[in-house]
Amino acid sequence: MFLWGQFTFSQTEPITISSDTKTTIEFLNELEDKSNYSLFYLEDWIQDLEINDNFTNASITDILESILSDTSLNFYVLEDERRVFFLQNTVVYDELPPAFYQRSDTVIMSQVAENRNNIPPPTFYNDEVSQTAQKLPIARVGRADEQNLRPTYQLTGRVINAQSGSPIPDLAIRSRGSGRVAVTNEQGEFTMELPAGYNVITTSAMGIRDSEREVIMYNDGTLNLLLQESLEQLQEVVVEADAVSNVEEAVSGSEEISSEESKDIPLVLGERNILEVAKALPGISSAGEGATGLNVRGGKTDQNLVLLDDAVIYNPTHFFGIFQALNPFTTDKVNIYKGAPPVEFGGRLSSVLDIETKNGNVEKISGEGSIGPVTGNLALEIPIKEDKSSLILGARGAYADWILQALDEESLNNSEASFFDGIVKYHHRFNENSEIRGTAYYSKDNFSITSDSLYNYSNRLGSVRWAHKLSEKSTGVLTASNSNYNFGIDYEDEGNSNFELDYTINESELRYKLNTRLNDAHTLDYGLSAKYYSVDPGNVEPKGPNSNVDPVSIDREQALEGALFIGDEFKVSDKLLIDVGARYAFYAAMGEATQNSYQEGAPRSESTVQDTLSYGSGEFIKTYGGPEARVSARYLFTPDFSVKASFNNSYQFIHTLSNNTTVSPIDTWKLSDLNIKPQKGYQATFGFFKNFKENMFELSLEGYYKRMDDVLDFKTGADLLLNENVETEVLQGEGKAYGVEFLLKKNRGDLNGWLSYTYSRSKYKFDGDTSEERINNGEFFPSNFDKPHDLSVIANYKFTKRYSVSMNFVYQTGRPITYPVGTFRFNNSDYVTFSDRNKFRIPDYYRLDLGINIEGNHKKNKLAHSFITIQVYNVLGRNNPYSVFFVTEDGEVKALQSSIFGVPIPSITYNFKF
């Protein structure tokens, strides 16, 4: 009895121990000495264990519970031998269930069965269960808890590209046997429920090597995956984000185009052009060949929000829209939203083009470039810190002047046309929970088609984006950006009217977006954004001491734009998915400025000015705003067939001023103010989406209807540039657009590509109080870009892995135009009378382009891998009219047409990659 009492006393003797100035090993050694217990563990298990607590009169079990509570380690105490064994994830069970020894009558067996249904058995693992050859060690997740046994546990994590260090979105993670599937979001994060115990998960995504991992689930926990890129060369021309996303996603009217997909498509002068490829998709077109800007579902070009790494780019083209102002070797992809865009985007009525730049290589220096007839491109990827940070540099320039000088046209011998653009992007991943990226971009164009005027325009932008994980279920993205667009005219002649003209628009934005996964059914996106505009509408300065041009300067315009937004992707059932969101947009035009007020019921002019109002610096001139809805729904009839519908409305507070048929580099942007209201738009869509033959074929048929209020147009002969009272030249009315879009794509095989067809109409109506404010007697009339029929065929056929041919065919209805229909004589002078606006059409447009693509040999060890494209643009030599104009010769009115490329244009481009 004496010996037993001594043993009991030593067992319960309290321990006082401090962690100050001790390593983990030193702390555990001291704990052994003071407790008289031997501790057994592997040092690898405790290398990340930090002990920062002090204990007074505590038992050994209390001390171990405290220091191991936030780890995956458990412990088991063998009292008789005074030993403590550390356990990785699991626990030791040293008792059988109470019912084990009871009689097995019906009542007892039913109680045992009920108990077994409510309380799952402990998690056990036998090495013989594993039948797969694994190079990676088995992943043990969670810390077993005898008091909290469940049939399933939650696995969360993040998937990272081992080469670039960037997150991998749209990666499918499947649990073998259970049928459970999860897909990573934009930050590479995923959450899925797995059965307790042994599991095998597999991963798959385009361009990522498939992987397999054995996982033992003891409790909820985290598992991050580092995956390798696939070295297999893709052979398809596919415009898709994921094999089944077109069917499964709730959002309709969205497309994703990879820059790599544009390399096989024959375009003018062999230039890769991701924006030109976008025109081959249904619902997207332009006013004509060489026209700057896109018309999306009957909207104007200024109704598109074009973003480059979260910063607005006002003119993403070079040389009147013939070339894109984006380096194809630094551009990763563009996401196009034609319907209800994500809830964080706003400020435009028609579409969002979200262009993303690649992350640089974090392992080794690499590069890509091309040399063509008129341009040279180069991109370099430089690792800064291995597996952590990288820098990507891109530059391209044109040497097109020699073409103009070689033309057999004396008036063009002194012309010039050149451009360049450059981009720098830095990307750094701090850890699996935080990363930052910064982008800087600049482009500039100079062109002179006449001998007396030099035109120039430039884009400058910068953005910083910090993505961080707030908790297991929440992430945040903070973005700051600045954009600047400028154009100028440098005029010189032999007289005294030399001048310099400048125009600038600048905007800065700050946006914070959060994503929270509440549960399996709800995922929230929410946040706020604020934007500041500063517009210098233009100024003219005399050039040279002999110029007699008077200086002119238009007052600066300023405004604030902000929004609060929240969205929820609500999984009602396996078949029904709803994506619903709401925004509240706010806008305020600010001083310092002066604004005119006009007599009601009278056309705006200098003679109807009622008062001139002055506003101080920072004072609000006029505020606008209102709620915006984003609603999309998808019903899945079968895994490869769905029906989708959507509705959205939006406000647009900024407009372009142009009285040209197509957008030009000297179009100005105008902010809403006291006299110019914001545009408002409403759009509803409904469509069917179907995949065939294991997603080899995609088929979609989607209809839309769009209504627009307070859209802008201009009076005939309007003077817009350097006009202090430009509102006197502006008309605001209503518009409507509707159409049906058909798309058939073949994603795999030797022959791949797509066929798209759109039937659409785009009409506007301006019906003011007076005849001066009406167009076509206040009736709806076709817009300048109304083209009912639009057909595109993109095809690529691979003979071998090195040789392929490609084709691009386009057919479009001729755009509307206003014709002279008669003449009259007044005061002994002849005048022309014109038809109603846009009553007639120019001839239909069609074009066929062909290309031959030759890959270099596929030897692994070589200085650079090459790729040669030989293309002919407009093979048929179709003299497609760009515009039709009228001249009077010998008292007779004659119609003439101008064309951009009226003959076949051959080109050869050499591409290299190292």
From TrEMBL:
Task: Enumerate the spans annotated as TonB-dependent receptor-like beta-barrel domain.
Answer: 425-874
Work out whether the entry's keyword set contains ATP-binding: no
- Keyword terms of this UniProt record: Cell outer membrane, Membrane, Receptor, Signal, TonB box, Transmembrane, Transmembrane beta strand, Transport
Q: Does the keyword Transport apply?
A: yes
This chain belongs to the protein called TonB-dependent receptor
**Domain TonB-dependent receptor plug, residue spans:** 270-348
- Which ranges does the record mark as transmembrane? none
Domain of life here?
A: Bacteria
User: Which Gene3D superfamilies does the entry link to?
Assistant: Carboxypeptidase-like, regulatory domain (2.60.40.1120), TonB-dependent receptor, beta-barrel domain (2.40.170.20), TonB-dependent receptor, plug domain (2.170.130.10)
What protein family does this chain belong to?
A: Belongs to the TonB-dependent receptor family.
Q: Which PROSITE patterns does the entry link to?
A: TONB_DEPENDENT_REC_3
* Membrane topology reported for the UniProt record: Multi-pass membrane protein
Give the location in the cell: Cell outer membrane
Please give the InterPro entries that the UniProt record associates with this protein.
Beta-barrel_TonB, Beta-barrel_TonB_sf, CarboxyPept-like_regulatory, Plug_dom, Plug_dom_sf, TonB-dep_rcpt-like
